Structures are given as C-alpha cells and as structure tokens.
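Hello, quick one for you while I still have it in my head. I'm working through a protein record and want to make sense of it properly. Would you mind checking whether the tokens look sensible for this chain? I owe you a coffee for this, so here goes:
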Amino acid sequence: MPGASSKNQQGETNMRFASISIAALATAIAAPAFAQDQAQADDTRSGGIAEIVVTAQKRAENVQDVPIAITAFTAGALQERAVGDVSALSGITPNVTLDASTPFSGSSAVLGATIRGIGSSDFAFNIDPAVGVYLDGVYLGRSIGANQDLLDVERIEVLKGPQGTLFGRNTIGGAISIVTHNPGDEFHAKGDVTVGRFNRIQARGLVDIPLAPGLSSSVAFGLHKRDGFQKRVAYSDPGANDSFTLFPASGYETRSRQGGDNSWNLRGKLRWDDGGKFRATFSADYTNIDQDSTANTVLAVTPIPGPFAGVAENNIPGTALDVVTGSSGFLFAGLYNFCIGATAQQIADRNATNLCGPRSSVNGYLTLPGLASRNVDGDPYNDLLPYDGRWVNTDKDVSYANGNNFSKLKQWGLGLNLEYDLTDNIALKSITSYREVDFKAGVDLDNSPLPILQTSFIVDQYQFSQEVQLTGSAMDGALNFVLGGYGFKENGDLRDFVTFSAGLLQVDGPGKVDTEAYAGFGQVDWRVNDLIGISVGARYTKENKRYDGAQSDINGFNYKLFNCMALDPATGNPSAECAAGVGFPIPSEPFRYYPTSPNKQTFDDFSYKLGLQLHPTEDVMAYGSFSRGYKTGGWTTRLSNPLPVAPTFGEEVAETFEAGVKSTLLDRRLQLNAAVFTTKYKGIQLNFQQGVSPTIQNAGDARIKGFEIEAVAAPADGFTITASAGYLDAYYTNVLAPAQVAPNPFQLGVQKGSALPKAPEWKFNVSPRYEVAVGNGKIVALADWTHTTGMRNDTEGTILLLRPTTDIVNASLQYQAPDNQWNLTVGGTNITNERYLVTGQAQIAGGQIYGTYSRPAEWYVRLGFEF
C-alpha cells in the first residue's frame, strides 16, 4: 500500500529520491508554487477568478502576492463544498491530513492535524500540537476543541510548512487561520436550515445590527444534532460481568449510539470603526457539546495464545515474571482469561493468587471480589465471559459495548482587537484574548459488555495571550515590515481514567500544567525593483513549563505481581515498606507511579526565514525560501510502571527549503500555483506504545520531500474547475534505539526508512462547478472527488490500522433565487460510501486493536436565506 510500507533498502531510497527530483524539476519548469483560492470563479469585473485577501503575513494582501504555500477558502466555497468543521478541509487541501478525533479521545471535537507529514495524534494536555490553529489571530493551545465548527467564517487560510517566524511555537508543520465575520455598517441577516440522514437537523444564522454611526454589532448562532451511525446492541449472553460503574471514571453516562452530534454555539462581536485612526473589535464566543463518544470498532483481540505468562518453573520466585521466555504477565486480557478459567491450584502454581484476587473499586482498595476460578468453581451463575475472538466486530456500525459513552465540551473565549494608525503608513495593533476549555469524555473500546478497556478524561484548560504588532510600509510601498511581541500563559488540570481487564489495572492519572511563553518577532519584505523582492524574518521564543503528575494504579497491580500485600492499618492501603520495596517513588502515596521531579523545564528557540521573490510579470511570481519551525518539549505522563525520575522529551525542529510559482494567466481565466519542498525534521515527537501505555519519545530524524500543485480554471462563464495534486515522500533517516520497533505479526515496525504516519504519498482533488441562469435565478451544480493513497494511521504501522487508498465523492445541486434571497441545496457526502479508519490504536497488551471508521454516505437538504 503506497505510503504505508517500510522502505529499508538503499536502492529503493535512491529511486525515490531520483523520482521526486525529476518530478520537482518538471513542476518547477511547468509553473511551481502554491497558495490559491479554492473558491468559485466569480469575478464580477471580468468574469474571471476572484481575488482572495489573506493576512498570512500580518497584513492584508492578495493571496497570489504572498510567497508562502497557502490554500485559502472563502465562506461561499466552504458552504458549497459541505465543509462544516476544520477536519472537513482535509480532502480538498493537498498534503494535509485533518482527522476529527485522535486515538481513545472519544471526541470529534479533537483535531488530529498533520501537514506535509508533520503533526500530532494525541490530545493529552501535556502534548502540544504541531499544527497551530488560530481563531481571529488567537492561538488555540489545545487540540481539544481545535476542530472548530465553522459558524460565521469569512475565510480559512491553511499555511503549509514551518511558520515559526510570524506564528511562533508549535507551528512546525504549518498553521490554520480561521477568520470570522466582522460586523457590517448595514443591517444584514442570513442563515440556513439543513436536514439529512441520521435525523440530522442543523440551523445557523448571522445578523449584523448597526447601533450608532461607527458602531456595529453581529450575532451568530448554530445548532447541530445528528444520531450516531454506530448502534449499540445487547449481547445475547451478558453473563455475570462486572459493571463498568464499579471502577473510577470521569462519568458513567451511556447512550444507544456512537458517533452522533449534539452541539450549539454562539458568537457575538461589537466593532467601532468611524473611518478614523482608531478601530476596536470586542468578541465573545461559546460552544457547548453534549453528544455520543466517537464510534469504535475492534479489529483484533490480542490475548494470543492464551495464558498471560510463561512456564511456572521459569518464574522469579514470588512473581509471575518468566525470565526464560521473556513473558512478563502484562497481557492483561490474557491474564483475565487465565484467572477466570484456572483452578485455585493452577493459579497458585503460577504465583498469581494475588493477581487473581480481590480488586479495587470505587469503594476503595480490594473492595471487589477477585476473578479467580469464576468459570470453574461449579457455580454457573457467577461465570464471566472470556475476552476472545467473539468480540472482533463483524459489522463496523454495530457494537456490543455497554460502558461509558459521552463527549462533553464547554469552550468559550473573549477577545479584544485594537488598531491605531500612527501615520498613514504605520499602524499599531493589539490582540488580547482569554479562553477556557472544560472537557469530559468517556468511551468503551472493547466491543463487549465486559469492562476490558474503558477510558475517560477530564481536562480544564485556561489560557491568556497578548500580542502587539507594529506594521507599516516605506519607500512608496516597496518596503513592508512587521515587528511584534507575544505572551502566552496556560494552566489547567487533567485527569485520565483507564480500566483494563475487569479492573486488573486501574489507571487514575491526575496532573497539572502551567506554561508561560514569550516571544519577539519581526519580518521585512523589500521589493528591491520590479523584478526582485527579498524577505527576512526572525523570532525568539522563551518558555517555562511545569508539569505536576500523579498517575496511579489504584488496583495495586505491581504489589500483587510481587506478592507484597502488607497493608497500612491506618489506611488499608499498601504499606510504605511495600511501596519502597516494589519501587514506588513516594512511599506515602503507595499507588502513585509518577515521581515528583523533574517538574520544570525551560526551552528557548530562534526561528528565522529567508526568502527571495522574482516578478517577471505583474501576474507571475516565483519564490524561494528557507524557514525554520520549532515545537516545544514536555513530559511523557502515561507510565506502565513506577519510575524514579519523570520521563521528559525534548523539542523538535523542522527546516524547510521551498521553491514555487504563483500565476494568474489568460486574463484571469487560469490560476496555476505550485511548490516543491524538502524538509529536515529533527527530534521527532511521536507516540509509541510501551506495554499498555502510549508514550511520547523523540523518535529520531526524518526527511520529507514533495510538491503541490493547485489550479483554478474558468474556461467559460459559469464554469470553473478547481484541482490540486500533492506528493509526499516522508521517511525516517534515523531512529534512536529505544524508539525502534521491529516488524512483527501485528506491525510493520519503525526503523530507518519507515514511512511517517498520516503522510499519504499522493492526493488528488478535482472539483468542477457549473452555474447556469434559470429565469432570474440560477442553478449551481458542484462535484468533488478526492483520491488519497494509503498511509499509516499510527507510528508503528499497525497492519490492521493502515488506511487504504480512498476515493471520496461529494456532490450538490443548488437553486439560487433572484438576488439570492433564498436558496435550496440537495447534496450528498461520501456518496460512494467509502469507509476507512480515521484513527486507532494497537493496545496489544490491553487486549485489542481498535479504530474509528469514517462516516458513511449521507444526504442533506439545505434551505438558506439572506437579506
């Protein structure tokens, strides 16, 4: 499968390099560079392709004049192409993969973003994204809530490649800038109502209300409700299985479906602009989500071949560790099966009496009966179902899970933008923002009525940011500059709950995060003459981070493993002597894996950009640039065993050379842009599975090479074709020994030459649009086809999680009444019902490989109005 297999042989690497070099050269000759409008071709002045104004360089410019690889979308284009949230941009943006959810997050509001092979597939509070999402110039610090509903969007700009100079930390892969509607000075209202498959009902509205000369306001609202596409059904033989409510979690709400939507949001703006030197915009937004967890499908059950460990005579005395075969007893589903199916003598022979004995529950340590011999004790009424192949899904849209099933997010923010013209050519701007995220989710990942793998989370995040920009021009506009300073403060709490194998392991992971970051930046763009332009930019960032973690196993599995069961009579918990003997770092907190230090780290970075532009004609620009991006380091917080020192990971860096061309040709009837790039990606932070724990490591280094081509053609009035192509060759050039994964029956592995995750080799998109007058109204027909070759969905290249080559087709037919006072659209998304895994995890030690499938084919009917 393209983009998913390992590439270990030097000959293959050389062939790849040669092919991409030839392709890059051909692209550069033909018309390279990148960044263009994906909107409809509707320029009222000439019948050609409309201009899009962007602010990618902190000033308003035609996207065709910006020497950066940008794909920009207008509000009209987003609506016509049924783009309702950020993740839906994935199919129509080359070399970009945006997924609604990440493994075990349980929420479609979490954004898994990867641009040109650089991204992050985790939502943990301590892990920073690699693609920055900005809302009206404000950085959203978490991937939770970053999959924004596109309520009242004016445009979206997707900037590809490191954006460290002007956008700063954690934009190593790129940046997504969402610009919302500003109030107008006349009364204006528009909205729409949509119905569709799975009982979908969606309503959105926007109204501009002038309040006084120079003072205007706007209010936008949206609501969206849709049944989940995955049904939960009762298993025919529920057995005497323990309820998931016996074990700690962030909540115990269940629902009959998974993958549904239920949300509403509001945004209000108040703007002062009387045409003078001073302008101000105050904004407030609120989002409330209370819906199902994401759908989940079990692809394989992994307690293979059965018993949890090796041969008893090989075990270390007093433990269940087989030192001859290397079996460690940490195949938890296998241990569960062994306990319920073994006699007391068989359990004793394996030194597993305590492991199979009483378990902890919400009522405290060892307050729940054990699992030992439940299926062989002669009492059929207390038999438990084993965890075996019967729980592999036979229908991806049906689940036997009956555990926690909810996703709740409350997110709000306040913003104040102030602008003052110091002179006719110099302006001062301030962007102040405060935002909060209150997140709670739970998902049952085992496709069974057993509490084999249940995850739930609580995240409360607060952030404050302040940016000041001084922008201006000189030399009759030949020189443009921006200087600025930035401050960001974030803190909050998180808590992870994970129940493994009927409570044999019960993770309770509280933690606190506190981050302060400061930066100074600047960029100068000088048009030396009609032919040559030069860009120079730099940014210095310093940040202080603190993490206080307290992850625990409240079932005390390690104590049972080493048969250290002495209790403190005052608390009833394991004694301090046991805690010290087994290796817990804080004997007074006997369940706590996580040590107290180091809990502080300091990072600093100097990112810069150098660029050269050539303007052979007014409508053609060629450019070349070197840019550097930076992503901060942090802590791995999910541990499988107690450690004396908290594990940290360092920052990662990307350095990219890019060359491209932007052109508007044939009297604005053809827009042809392209870019070719090569990136050195160093100190990569990627998720690796260590036992039951997904951990972050600096995996090594990679080389990423590729190109992008985007075109908009308007060959005739009313007819346009938008098309794009992207190519990526993203592979490891070095993998550190602790991060290497050997190929195995489950996985392709990770070693030098392996492909990076979420980096398909090819992506093509073609979208024809035809508009024809009907009386005083018009009909607009639109089709959208995206072909994406296969890719890894996880770092290790789990074979069952590989995303195959996909072909996604969307289409719509719209009637617009005279003056577009109302319109009616009938459309479908994924109309060929292409199903593929969006995300997933190989939880081999926990007992399963599972994933989330894409949404099935859906139809919709939308009625819109505007006046």
Summary: Helices lie at 10-30, 75-80, 332-341, 344-349, 557-561, 576-582. The two ends are 51 Å apart (CA to CA).
